[in-house]
């Protein structure tokens, strides 16, 4: 079934990366429309759309915008989070690389709605060539009057600057991102105060994901109510999913959140099934921080209902039998893959990326990696599995930012659903990796 | 002597103009990228001190940042740095084999540089290219869907480029 695409509808139009083509295809209409509305009306449309933050936490965007403090005489800022570093996630990159003007357009409308005259795109440092693409798009937009002073006669001024990070997953966490934008180490701040009250240079700041801000374009074009008709329940609109691992067609897909997980994995329109006739073993559907599920619980919920690709269905069953939508980084495992080894790479990742401020995260991630390494390399004991469980449970909820939780959950889920695999490693040290 | 050209200095003042008055420290990360590119692909202490001077901040503020972020090199690296992703999704598509193959081809381990100063091998964590795995970063660009043959060709390419530069 063909679905309604509102973000990637034009991604294959030749030359869509450049202003002329983008404009010819209807680009920047939402800016023209927005300037006929008041900023408050735009916030209202976004509220009506039901749009939820696409960075992973799923917080309602319109509500967040309405929380922004407006102290007299203090500038406010919009910051676009393009740090995209969650293993399995590469959707924002696709959008920026192929339709950069969609993001710029969304940023102009959102900046107007929030009263941000200076807006920043904080992009992970490794996406160096995308910085050039964005800067070119910004220059084109500016040359055509969509940025700068008194944009298309509206009286609204706005500049967009691209800021490059330098290799640190933690800088995707919004308060770490703000610290980094201020030229410091990426150490997360304690929330509250939320950035909406005290953000960059202590000014009210809204941080939103690339995909969230791009979605503002179709919301304004079609109206919040129309947008909310796409999808189901509180999962309104479309979602970009980056699919990877053992599938025939890895890539970025726009889905309308009414399709089932089974259809997404096996239909040729999406992942196209598992290569070499192998069987589906497991999947991490929302980026490395969300729980892994074995095939049976992935395709059907514990209640026996078909599991769907939306926020509610993916989290059905809580952490006992469910998982999360997260950032939409969809990682598929075929039957030959080793869950212990994969979990070890994730533990190493989180140890490497911990900023080191909180002891449960700093020490705990290191211990988890070490124990997992022992198990994987045939030097583990049965009691190590319980120890691992114990450590992860003590990190969760005891840290400044959710990186600690993000490190704990994959380990917990791997043990919960694949304990036999951990035990097999302990019992068969001779067959272990060397 | 550590000093930017006039042209680079213009770029620096343009950068500083992106931030409010007195918040020039915000230019630190981008400035370190520029400095690293200009001064031999790593950040020696005099380079960091120069950056501190340009931004009118304490040298320690620069060291703090340079040591936090993985893209800043604090010691010399080879002319070509192969930064191969080793995180889960790439592992599922065979990154372990690619890393082993490069180790064998170049005779170095991750973190090491070939004696001729040509290649550095580095293992890195997820670069946002999981669907195009296995992959590596080489300079400004990504090299994706790596195979052994592709690695062979890349090494050749680098050697040829290096020769034509000399
Ligand atoms: N896209 C990626 O590469 C990655 C995404 N993530 C995702 O990040 C999520 C965690 O992010 P957090 O920002 O810590 O979640 P959070 O739930 O604390 O916040 C979500 C957003 O809502 C805002 N917010 C929440 N309550 C508010 C209030 N009362 N007033 C004003 N604003 C409010 C926050 O400022 C933030 O922008 C995880 O669920 C994970 O899926 C994690 C790692 C990487
Ligand atoms: C460790 C960590 C890393 C994160 N990385 C990203 C990221 O790369 N991109 C992103 O948009 N949000 C990331 N987030 C979530 C942000 O803190 C924040 O919720 C998000 O940018 C808000 O935008 P949204 O409401 O549009 O989703 C991360 C959170 C944590 C805890
Ligand atoms: S939980 Fe980890 S990453 Fe987050 S602030 Fe604490 S130490 Fe830093
Ligand atoms: S895991 Fe290698 S690029 Fe994401």
TrEMBL record, chain B:
Which first-to-last residue range defines the signal peptide? Answer: none
CDD domains with a match to the protein in the record: TRX_Fd_NuoE
Any binding details for the cofactor? Binds 1 [2Fe-2S] cluster.
Lineage top rank: taxon: Bacteria
Give one GO biological process term. Answer: inorganic cation transmembrane transport
Q: Which UniProt keywords apply?
A: 2Fe-2S, Iron, Iron-sulfur, Metal-binding, NAD, Translocase
One annotated GO molecular function is:
active transmembrane transporter activity
Cross-referenced InterPro entries, in alphabetical order? NuoE-like, NuoE_dom, NuoE_N, Thioredoxin-like_sf
The record's Gene Ontology cellular component field reads: catalytic complex; membrane protein complex; organelle envelope; organelle membrane
- Cofactor(s) for this protein? [2Fe-2S] cluster
Where does this protein hold [2Fe-2S] cluster? 85, 90, 126, 130
Pfam family example for this protein? 2Fe-2S_thioredx
Family membership noted in the UniProt record: Belongs to the complex I 24 kDa subunit family.
Q: What name does this protein carry?
A: NADH dehydrogenase subunit E
Query: What is the scientific name of the source organism?
Result: Parafilimonas terrae
